Amino acid sequence: MQKPNKVYFASDQHFGAPTPQDSYPREQKFVAWLDMIKTDCHTLFLLGDLFDFWFEYKTVVPRGFVRVLGKLAELRDSGIEIHFFTGNHDLWMGDYFEKELNIPVYHKPKEFTYNNKVFLIGHGDGLGPGDKGYKRMKKVFTNPFSKWLYRWLHPDIGVKLAQYLSVKNKLISGDADVKFLGEENEWLVLYSKRKLESKHYDYFVFGHRHLPMVIKVGENSSYINLGDWIGYFTFGVFDGDSFELKEYKPEEA
Fold it and tell me: Which end of the chain has fewer CB atoms < 10 Å from its terminal CB, N or C?
C-alpha cells in the first residue's frame, strides 16, 4: 500500500445548528468524508467551528456529536495526525480534545511546513483590519474571568442558553453576510498580504468566511478559504506539490 502522504483541511461544520435533527445529515456526510480520506491522509487540519457551540465545564461537555468524535478518535488512533484550531463558535474549547482524543488545540494561527511549502493556518476570525466590534467582544469572551463566571451556570442552563444565542444572535455568533467583498475588501486577503511583507508563506489557509476561495496574494503565495459544510461541503488537500480546493460529493467517493 502507498504510504499516506496527503494533508487535508476542513472548516466550519457548525454541527448542532440550527437543531440537532437538522444537523444530523451533515454530520453523517462529514463522517463519510473522514472515512474516505483515511486511506491516504497523513495529517488532518480542522480549522474551527466544528460545533456551533462548545463549552467545557471541568467535568461536562455538550452532549451529542458522538459519531464525529468517534471517527476522529479512530483516525487519530490509526496514526493520522490531527490538528484543531478554535473558531469563534468553539473558542471556549479547553483540553478535552487533547486529553480524550490526543488532538492538539490551537487558539491562534500557526505555521507548518510540508515538503518545503510553508503554511500559515488558522480559523480567521479577528484577523486583518476592521471588525473592531467583534474583536472587542472576543477579548471579553476569551477572558478567563468571563469563562469562570459562565461555569457557575448549571450545564443544562449554560449550554442551552449559549446554543440559542449562537443560532439566533448574529452579534454573538460572529456570523457575517456570506458575500464576496472583492479582493481589496476581503480582510483575510489583506491580512495575508501584510504577513508577506515580513516573511514568505506559500499558502494561507483559513475558514470563518464560509466562502470557498483561492486568491493569489503574491507571486508564489495563495490565500485559501475552505468554505463550509453547510452549503458547500468543500475541503482542501495538499498532495505534496500543490493545494487543491474540492467539493465532497458522496456519489463520486
Answer: N
